């Protein structure tokens, strides 16, 4: 599931300058969507690159026919949402028979771009109204009044697969709860806050909710052999890594070795905390989607997965890949009777993680235990497959 953060920035939050400050903070933090009034779509597009959703407040106006004062076509939003100044926010009384709902009629029309609803959960009737709207909408935004977790649990259970369920929140802590409810969580949150720190923290919560946590295991080193020269790959990312972070790389997809980033100071070279000296061109590296990629295929703009020694992961953008001929070690390790290997440069600046902590490959000896990620599966073009493949 891909989580998203929406930022509420319609006229209900203040004048344009107030809304602009909020939107700018959202752009800087990395929100996915901004929800505004239809009249603000073009202005928001001028502020930066972000998905724009707009409230539809006039169900009789066809989106494709909208024009500016000079006769030019108005800027279109990426999504149009019904419910503001309508039945969804209780401005108009909720009909006893939903077949007579103006909001739902607009949502169900197939000749415009309206593809989402906004519903305040004021009672069980509004919860039922949100369920009905979810049948026809790509997005269903639900706002709790004196919010309890039960209505969100009900909606996740009943409509979680029919729509992208977006839960209204006012803090990053509420966003965390929304993403964790019933383990599945909401698909996104609509944040109503002017606080740049709260906006940034909410985006961080989104990132954490999407990240894998991997179980790293200890494998026993059986051999460290000088192998001569090979084409070695340094992966320079656009991210400053922490002291306990690195990448998973290896010659065999089922057993990837944890290799530290070059965050440690050395008497020989300066630290480069954005870099992982990852191994030879043939080796695999793990990607954020759980796949693998050959180190030789990586290039600027690609994504790689970073991981720390506890198995916590995050993503990083590759800024540069350096391939140079260097002397190498072949490292072999045993995990529960299975032998896995990789090639790493013969240099004291390349570190792996053993029971003793951060250890240079030049100090690695048979009998040491080092961290690897073991996955008893075969790979075809980087994807896990149920197939018998022998790697040795």
Derived from helix and strand composition plus strand pairing, the structural class reads alpha/beta
Q: Are there runs of 5+ residues with pLDDT below 50, and where?
A: 59-64
Instruction: Label the overall shape.
Output: elongated
Straight-line distance between termini:
35 Å
Count of separate DSSP helical elements: 7
**How many strands appear in the DSSP assignment?**
22
Order of helices and strands: EHEHEEHEHEHEHEHEEEEEEEEEEEEEE
Q: Would you tell me the overall average pLDDT? A: 89
Largest sheet: 8 strands, parallel, barrel
Beta-strand percent range: 35-45%
Order the strands across the largest sheet as they lie in space: 1-2-3-4-5-6-7-8
Fraction of helical residues: 10-25%
Q: C-alpha Rg, in Å?
A: 26 Å
Task: Provide structural commentary.
- 19% of the residues lie in helices and 38% in strands.
- The chain is an alpha/beta fold.
- An eight-stranded parallel beta barrel has the order 1-2-3-4-5-6-7-8, surrounded by seven helices. Strands 9-16-15-10-11-20 form a six-stranded antiparallel β-barrel. A two-stranded antiparallel sheet has the order 18-19.
- It is elongated, with a radius of gyration of 26 Å.
- The two termini are 35 Å apart.
